Amino acid sequence: QVQLVESGGGLVQPGGSLRLSCEAAGVTLEDYGIGWFRQAPGKQREAVSSITKDGRIIYASSVQGRLTISRDNAKITAYLEMNSLETENTAVYYCAAGQFGSYLINNYYLRRSSYRHWGQGTQVTVSS
Questions:
Q1: Neighbouring C-alpha atoms within 13 Å toward the C-beta of 102
Q2: Which of 25, 69, 71, 109 could be stapled to 78 by a disulfide with Cβ–Cβ 3.0 to 4.6 Å?
């Protein structure tokens, strides 16, 4: 049974930084691509970033330059480092795992339907 557990969320002031972690269990992480999504209050869940099993990285256009996605297969963990956070970044952040190739169009990796397994999410609140 595949389980994904996010951690690292919390309250941070505008301009601050956070690093979210996504720890996997019941899966060989190197066989999966990992995506990060977020859902703000009253809004739909949207993609933030994705990293394929081969290390190809895709960012949503809305977050370019302020996020860094990475993975450590030995630790069965993926990360999302967020810098220069703004109040509109407040959301529940989810990680997800899916099995797909590394040579598809960018949009594929940013679709919810591309991922089979999901974590429960971690709350990120940006407020002064």
A1: 12
A2: 71
d(CA 41, CA 59): 22
Contact (Cβ atoms closer than 8 angstroms) between residue 85 and residue 65 = no
**Once rounded to an integer, what is the mean pLDDT over residues 75-81?**
94
Report the amino acid identity of residue 75.
K
C-beta contacts of 115-118 below 8 A and 24+ residues apart: 115/33, 115/35, 116/2, 117/2, 117/3, 117/4, 117/27, 117/32, 118/4, 118/94
Q: Report CA dihedral (96, 7, 51, 25) to the nearest 10 degrees.
A: -60
| Residue 81, beta-bridge partner list | 19, 68
As a whole number of angstroms, the distance between CA 18 and CA 16 comes to 7
Q: How many residues does the chain have?
A: 128
**What confidence tier does 2 reach under pLDDT thresholds 50, 70, 90?**
confident
